[in-house]
Amino acid sequence: MDKFVIHGGKPLSGTVRISGAKNASLALMPATILAPGTFSLLNTPTLRDITTMARLLESMGVKTSHSNHTMTIDSSRIAHYEAPYEHVKKMRASIYVLGPLLGRYGRAKVSMPGGCAWGPRPVNLHLEGMKKLGAEIDLEGGYIVAKAKKLKGARILFDVSSVGATGNVLMAAVLADGASIIENAAIEPEITALAEFLQSMGAEIHGIGTSKLEIDGVESLHARNATTIPDRIEAGTFLVAGAIAGKKKGNVRLEQCSPDHLAAVIAKLGGAGAKVNSGKDFIEIQPPESINSVDASTAIYPGFPTDMQAQWIALMSLANGTCVVTDTIYHDRFMHVPELNRLGADVTVRDNTATVIGGPRLTGAKVMSTDLRASASLILAGLAAEGTTEVLRVYHLDRGYESIEKKLQLLGADIERVKGEEF
Ligand code: EPZ
What we know:
Elements: E1 3-7, E2 14-17, H1 22-31, E3 38-42, H2 48-58, E4 63-67, E5 70-74, E6 82-83, H3 85-88, H4 98-105, E7 107-111, H5 124-132, E8 136-140, E9 143-147, E10 155-157, H6 163-173, E11 179-183, H7 189-200, E12 204-206, E13 212-216, E14 226-227, H8 232-245, E15 252-255, H9 263-271, E16 275-278, E17 282-286, E18 296-297, H10 309-316, E19 322-326, H11 336-342, E20 347-350, E21 353-357, E22 366-368, H12 372-384, E23 388-392, H13 395-398, H14 404-410, E24 414-418
Parallel strand pairs: 2-15, 3-14, 6-7, 10-11, 18-19, 22-23
Antiparallel strand pairs: 1-23, 1-24, 3-5, 4-5, 7-9, 8-9, 11-13, 12-13, 15-17, 16-17, 19-21, 20-21
This protein binds ligand EPZ.
Ligand EPZ binds next to helix 1, helix 5, helix 6 and helix 12.
């Protein structure tokens, strides 16, 4: 397992290009199941999770190839309608094949996703939505076994606004008989991108970008190409890098990103004292003279994303004052806290709220990655810490950040990947 060795305190400045969005690609790829043909998905990032999704699709008979950020998918010869445990255990988003398989083939066998590093992540809304569309759903031997001669349009009102359930049910409803309505649908940019892709394939969807999606089922869909939107969480992570370790009076510039998708994060960084300036597809950040403590409470889009919560706590651990950071989406997503405290942060967690007492410095140490965004916060803290930080088990990072160490080196960070040691 690789680790990162970071010699902190190097002021960051310069330009990086933001990659395509992991969470958009993980929805676009299974959507190709819905129509026979060849698709080119441009700006697809090179990430472990993308490889896992490609392997999963290949196990069904799909052909995939990925080069120069273009994912080419041929879905003409699907012969297996199953997502085996081996794939699903690596990545919960594998459940995204359920809707398209049911919609196109009327059957699917998908391993039930287990919990994740920070706790239970149920899929009841996905299953309830499929049942509303007329699917029979049984749980056998840890598998969701779903069948339906032909799905029928229905009205689905989600108790909780869920990104995954919205995407999955939408992909099932586009080929159903008749009209469907999804209410309290998620409006995250990744869902809007999925809906627009389905529309380009011939789906009839109204209300895209709103929490009420109206779908008129169609007979069939056609293969189309698409370009993946930029990754707003990767961009947010690099903005915090610019705030926590940026060169005074220097700036970190992000290119090929969507500032609109980051309004909540940019507003918080402004509150913390950073100067943020953006254009159509770039953002520049100048670090604060001194970091102000700013509370944060995560929310569904366009609120402050839960996937930026850990990175925010890392920044606030160097602020001049105390703040509280609450996660309303995942109440127990605080695996990064004990590791940040090993670097000298002062964070305490009660229920779904962390109290962060800011301080003048962090000091390098060995820390353990536990999940994707938690490990990003450890890297950010290591960039600002005095001395050497070793971030172990960085395979978590490789799931969702494309060559993060190379991009940080471009900004002047002293970070190195050390290959394959057992920790
Ligand atoms: C997506 O996960 C993202 N993953 C997550 O990013 C992100 O944290 C999350 O949305 C929230 O923004 C992908 O897009 C692949 P949800 P998802 O369904 O779809 C509850 C990252 O770091 N819920 O919107 O699984 C759930 O427990 C990852 O890139 C149910 O109760 O999230 C949570 O509290 C981590 N029942 C809330 O809804 C369900 O059936 C939101 O979850 C489904 C969800």
